TrEMBL record:
GO terms for molecular function: methyltransferase activity. CDD domains: AdoMet_MTases (cd02440). It comes from the Eukaryota. SUPFAM superfamilies: S-adenosyl-L-methionine-dependent methyltransferases. Residues 1-42 are annotated as: Disordered. Pfam families: Methyltransf_31. Residues 139-241 form the Methyltransferase domain. This is Methyltransferase domain-containing protein.
Amino acid sequence: MQGTYDDAWPWSPRRGSDVSYFSSSSHPSDADDELDDKMSQADTVEREEFAGDGGSGRNSSSLSVYSYHSSVDGSAILRDIHGRTFNNTSDNYMLPADVAEHDRLDLQHEMLKKKRGGLFFAPQAVRRALAPRDGSRPSILDVGSGSGSWVIEMGRQFPHAEVVGLDLAPANLRSYRTPPSNCRFECDDANLGLLHYKGCFDVVNASCVSLGITNYRKFMDEVVEILRPGGVFLTVEGDMQIYDENYNPVSLANEGEPGFTYTVRLVGAILDAMRAKGPGIDAYPKIYDWLQDQGNVWRDIGQKFLYIHIGPWEDGMSAKDKQISELMRQDLLRLFQSAKPLLLSYGWFEETVDKWSAGAEEEFKILKNKYYVRWLSRWAIKPGQTT
Ligand SMILES: C[S@@+](CC[C@H](N)C(=O)[O-])C[C@H]1O[C@@H](n2cnc3c(N)ncnc32)[C@H](O)[C@@H]1O
């Protein structure tokens, strides 16, 4: 298997009474390096499994032991395609799940955090929902948690809360980013339903995951169910469309046509290939309208568009904006690499994809185009208050 997934644990099989997952609370942090060593030497590691309360995780002190064997379980949850490692459970989501992609997601996470000024919008509602209280422990779910950065940072920011990251593939838990004891990760497909979590969470985050959600509208109905009263739903999605310096969408042009750029051509090809994988990629523009359609299940909804320069092409940009624009430029360059297997599977010749990627890279290097990427942030707050 390409890419080491010795660090590709923990993971859990299906839910229900046999739900099993790893909680870092059960692993002393100083044991993590030792465990990594064990995995690479013996390819086997013991880990804890919780008896499960339907997946709510509220009984995360009841332990049993689950034995993970990476050479067997690893191939069940991960597969190689065109030299990159992918999840092995969903055909809809076809971006890699390897260290290179997780590094890209970390970079994107830093960029969004800087642009937003924190880990989330609607800070008052989020802090209210996660305030310490008697009776129940505040809980957070990150659907499509990717590398795990948001989960880990939320765990640090809200040490009294429990944070669960759910993803098709294991997070990137290298020893330098050992999660705090209130975080855990589950391997699962959100398309199989979330209702086993009914009433379990105060915040549900879904960042850049719509591509992998087959029925986003249904997913939103389930989010309402799994949130407690006063709970907050947070989403952010990057627009698969390039915007010009006047914030207008740039039309796709083919080579030889006026206005052709490699950047827009490549993004257009990626969008087509994603569309061929399912309806998820066309859901994100509709999320705000769907939140409104859901009606009085929400007390308050909001949205904010963030336009981020691709590279520091504008005069007079602040140091912070320059830094954010550099992260955007790097993020896109790496996305082009991550999307290569998708483009090849869709039917493009490798030489075409490589030519477009090299062309886009050159455009980025010389800041040929004055382009933005638009990010769509939405949030919604459930009525009531958890006591
Ligand atoms: C683009 S990444 C975003 C990761 C993270 N939320 C972030 O913003 O950095 C999308 C993640 O969602 C996961 N994903 C996609 N479809 C999913 C599904 N149906 N259920 C669970 N996870 C899913 C992918 O495996 C991937 O890790």
